[in-house]
């Protein structure tokens, strides 16, 4: 399947021998996504929601259609979806918009494996309100979250916000259990699905979460796009935190009233072309289907793990069960930046550093960071073999 898929990505089609293993940072974009964005910019470019002329009406329809595509993808209604400029933007909107439900000594529960985008906004809320951040630790042997969630989630907890998949370890969390636990004490459950939405189904009813956040550029969509799902009930609790045009119903100099949910969360002109592209990216994922995606990525992850292990220590589960294709590794005596630089010169793109997860790096005693290779739908066996020969050369060169 993946040779055909590679053909659908200009970046891969035009660069034979290029191995892209950095989809965890940002995935490549298929031609079909670029095409619909081009159509918008070249054929019916107009602002949405305001114009009474055909191009604006058509652009509005295309933009609103994406809300329906996303709703089908997550198993919710279109009115439970709003668009952002990325996951970071979405998580900040939740943090600002829910601050009013948090009081001094209340607790916000995060996990040790969170990305900075799901730590810093809550840390700032805690500072402003006097709330406390409580952190579910990661077991350093299994790299799983401590599964005794009940220990961390008591009556003081107002919010639980956890990544469905770790962007460092690749581990998959038991979100449904966490949601049930959060709800048993009346807390809201937020899922950072940035690393999962392109790799496994994320049905919000099954996950039983109140909010789910992701960015478009990790799901084969354009940069500058993101999604927030909120259940109707949860969105009613969320206050707008970006103000201006399009999100209002009435405005006076002293007071304003808000547009209906979800429009009150989309202030100003959104990334219209990008959102139209994001809709196409989701359609693209659906056209391949979860069975094919999961089976292929599992196979590639197994191969990646077995190719990397002889050279390096894997930071994360060493088997493909309950993990995705985000594979972090360290090699004694070689800095992760040197690994990534060396591989980059051999046309193998991976990432290196702390992956915006400094607390996790600190607790795993990995302050130099890790090298990280991630699988995407276009990853082939040749890519993995290419990585293998580059790692072999690295070993010879660095001794
Ligand atoms: C788990 C996780 N959350 C949040 C983000 C932030 O996403 P963005 O930079 O698109 O806002 C990332 C990006 O790497 C991520 O991996």
Q: What is the gist of this entry?
A:
The protein is α/β, with parallel strands linked by helices.
What can you tell me about this protein's structure?
- Helix content is 39%, strand content 16%.
- It has helices at 2-7, 10-13, 31-43, 54-74, 87-98, 120-129, 175-184, 204-207, 232-237, 272-288, 290-308, 336-345, 358-363, 381-398; strands at 19-20, 81-84, 107-111, 132-136, 157-163, 188-192, 211-215, 226-230, 248-251, 256-258, 313-315, 326-330, 348-349, 351-353, 370-374.
- The mean pLDDT is 96.
- The radius of gyration is 22 Å and the shape is globular.
- The chain folds into 2 domains: 2-21 and 289-398, Aspartate Aminotransferase, domain 1; 33-286, Aspartate Aminotransferase, domain 2, CATH 3.40.640.
- By secondary structure, it is an alpha/beta fold.
- The strands form 4 sheets. The protein has a 7-stranded mixed sheet with strand order 2-8-7-6-5-3-4, with helices on both faces. A 4-stranded antiparallel sheet has the order 11-12-15-14, covered by helices on one side.
- It is built from 14 helices and 15 strands.
- Pyridoxal-5'-phosphate is lined by residues 86-88, 115, 117-118, 163, 167, 192, 194-195, 215, 217, 356.
- Pyridoxal-5'-phosphate binds next to helix 5.
